[in-house]
Amino acid sequence: MSSAAASSPVPGGFGLRRALVRNRGALIAAAVLAILLFVVDWISAGPLTYFDVSFLSSGGATSALAAIGQTIVILSGGFDLSAGAVISLVNAVLASSMDPMAPGASILLWTTVGIGVGMAVGAFNGFFIAVLRMQPIVVTLSTMFILQGVTLLVMDKPGGFVSPDLGTFYLGDAIAGWLPMPLVVIGVVLLAWFWLKGTRFGTALYALGSDPESAASVGINVVLVRFAVYVIAGGCYGLAGVFISAQTGSGDPLVGNPLLLSMFAAVVVGGTRLGGGQGGPVGSVFGAYILMIVVNILLVLNVSAYYATIAEGTILVLAALAGSISHASVLAVQLRAARARLAAWRAGILPSQLERVDRRLKIAEPAHAQRSPASPRPAFHLRNAETLRYALPAYVCLLLIVLVTQIWLGRAILNPGYWNSLLVLSSFLAVLALGQGTVILTGGLDLSVPWTIGISGIILAGMVNGSDAALVYALPVVLVMACAIGFANGFGIVYLGISPIVMTLATNGILQGCALLYSQGTPAGFSSPMLRWVMTAKLAGLLTPIVLLMVVFVVAAVLLLGRTPFGRRVYGIGNGLRAARLSGIGVERTLILVYMLSAVCAAVVGVMLTGFSGQASLGMGDDYLLPSIAVVVVGGALITGGRGHYLGMLGGVLLLTALQMLLAGTTLPYATRAILYGLVVLGAVMALRERRLQ
User: Fold this and answer.
1) What does residue 161 show for φ and ψ, rounded to 5 degrees?
2) What does the alpha-carbon distance between residue 186 and residue 168 come to, in Å, rounded to a whole number?
């Protein structure tokens, strides 16, 4: 009896230790938050008051609510890039629907409207991801652009009206002087999560994130669980949109865009594992408040607000790195491999140090053996059947768009000016297609394209400032900087084991802050006359010089991906990383070169845009992220890598540019372009998926 009593604490202690390990990320985030609160109390003029706590709780509530939804998606093994756009849409819907002449507003009604809008978007995402089994990254990125267009249709500029009653309720006190309402709202959402976690759905959610195939094999309805995940997450984004509407008191169609980076950073800081199966929303709430307090500390120390995105991006990278450190992590494996290579080098047994002797067996050919006559070379359409199968639809659709343009607007088919404009406007995406397309061929994605374009154009314009002579050294500086950006992306992905989505998203945020710091919010300088001539002049009154340069570029791109060892290595990696390693491909070196190529292409586009418009501007690359992916997918490339041809991507470029020119000649609003881009990408991915399954 006594022995049994003595041994009883052991299971309890083991259970406690297991719980601590399982919730390590959230506990560490809570400890960091407590330290930061102590720092805030120390650097403030006086001790923290209830007003300070209430102010801090409302400042981080929107990010915390959105991070809860993003955490649920990531726990299932997915990603949701449309979260910020959902928040913007809910804000625009509320601000444009509330009547400023009405004496009061129903808090329950408008909260239900906001959550309902978010859940509807989540159902849209869930249908394509769960039912049609499409890639979450592509679906949610397309949804993001569709929602941005819809939001602009609802509200094309900041304004509108949000009832003060909404702010009074959500920003007030639940218990006067003791408990702020934002903490109550977050607490209620977390209680709902704890209830959900204890149900069969919660168990299925973690099982799905850990191993989808095993989850399906034990009878879990993977489609239903995955669909419900995006619906629930959309409801959280909708509630975050309601909360930010209460804070601002008005509408802004872009209010949710800056939240995407901080949202992912909060999830990672809170200890949720990217890839699913481990973590929870509690840590993400702590992570959201950690990021908010860090930004506030910078402001208290009189550090420029431009450092905010740099801090968020850096924290995201460090948190992702810290969360993945283990004996089996990519970083640990790379360190052990480096140690083994160093030992082999010291022993002189590296392959490059050994004498190169041909040790292959030589088999003598029998004297009576006769060489069979060489078989005739297959016809062109047989050799390139797969490429033609996926690339030709883009060119067929291009011809249809040109015919529609001729019928609707006239002066297209036989008008040299139309074709020159089409080729000039296509040149930007044609360059981006090489970089982003090469990344996609390896199974990755580069989300740092927008601000690589932006900072390249801003730095070039500032250095050149209208001087052709300065272009001689400014252009190499920009290209070297782009190489460094691409190397940083590739190094983080290859050697630190950070997800390409997270690494390039963090880099994009860091570059945004650097561009703001360099320009102080107002880019200076303008393009040199030579660069302006290349992008806008007319040779013989018909052809712009950039068109001739693009012909050379297209030839070089086709040869690079189709006729060089680098191109073969890219396709090998896309068709299977493990098989590529076993085949002797230098995977690490090739992937770093791939991301460097993508960054250089983005920098070249920044230079081209500066020459085309005459100067650089903040956000000049924002409109090129989805199109850079869309042209690759529309051109027949497989979003998971391994299949695609640059000529197909070029067809996608020409198709989308011709479509853009057609829309520009109509009376349709500008917002329809973003909607159309998103729908085109979804349609193309669906069509190519159906062909692949046949």
Assistant:
1) -145, 130
2) 17
For residues 345 and 353, the answer to whether their CB atoms sit within 8 Å is yes
Q: In whole angstroms, what is the distance from residue 410 CA to residue 666 CA?
A: 12
Task: Give the model's pLDDT for residue 557.
Answer: 94
Report whether 526 contacts 474 (CB < 8 A).
no
Judge whether residue 20 has pLDDT over 50.
yes
C-alpha to C-alpha distance for 626 and 685, rounded to whole angstroms: 13
Answer yes or no: are the C-beta atoms of 629 and 440 closer than 8 Å.
Answer: yes
Do 68 and 285 form a contact (C-beta atoms < 8 A)? yes
Q: What phi-psi label fits residue 373: left (phi over 0), alpha (psi between -120 and 50 degrees) or beta? A: beta
What's the rounded Cα separation, in Å, for the pair 476 and 466?
17
Average pLDDT for 384-396? 75
* Residues 466/526, Cβ–Cβ less than 8 Å: yes
Count CB-CB contacts under 10 A for residue 199.
10
Residue of 444, 487, 393, 443 lying closest to 641 (CA atoms): 443
Residue 5 is predicted with a pLDDT of: 42
Instruction: Record the tokens describing residue 506, joined without a space.
Output: 């963090």
Cα–Cα distance between 440 and 388 in angstroms, integer? 19
DSSP state of 621: T
Residue 155 is given by DSSP the state -
pLDDT tens-digit map of 101-133: 666 668 888 899 999 999 999 999 999 999 988
DSSP-derived secondary structure for 179-216: EEHHHHHHHHHHHHHHHHHTSHHHHHHHHHHH-HHHHH
As a whole number of angstroms, the distance between CA 164 and CA 174 comes to 17
Write the secondary structure of 213-239 as one string of H (helix), E (strand) and C (coil): HHHHHCCCCHHHHHHHHHHHHHHHHHH
Residue 93: burial class (beta carbons within 10 Å; 0-12, 13-18, 19+)? buried
What letter represents residue 77's amino acid? Answer: G
Residue 671 φ/ψ, nearest 5 degrees: -65, -25
Distance CA 408, CA 400 (A): 12
Please give the helix or strand (H or E) that residue 246 lies within, else none. helix 222-248
Q: What is the 3-state secondary structure (H, E, C) of 416-438?
A: HHHHHHHHHHHHHHHHHHHHHHH
- The single-letter code of the amino acid at 88 is S
Q: What is the sign of the dihedral through the CA atoms of 147, 149, 155 and 156?
A: positive
Q: Which candidate, 260, 253, 214, 198, places its Cα nearest to that of 70?
A: 260
Number of Cβ atoms within 10 Å of the Cβ of 618: 18
Name the pairing type of β-strands 173-175 and 179-180: antiparallel
End-to-end CA distance of the chain: 68
**pLDDT digit string (tens) for 650-689?**
998 998 898 888 877 777 777 777 787 778 778 777 776 6
Handedness of CA 86, 91, 96, 101 (dihedral sign): positive
User: Predicted confidence band at 2 (pLDDT cuts at 50, 70, 90)?
Assistant: very low
Return the axis-axis angle of helices 50-59 and 181-197, rounded to nearest 10°. Answer: 50
Distance (Å, whole) CA 673 – CA 694: 32
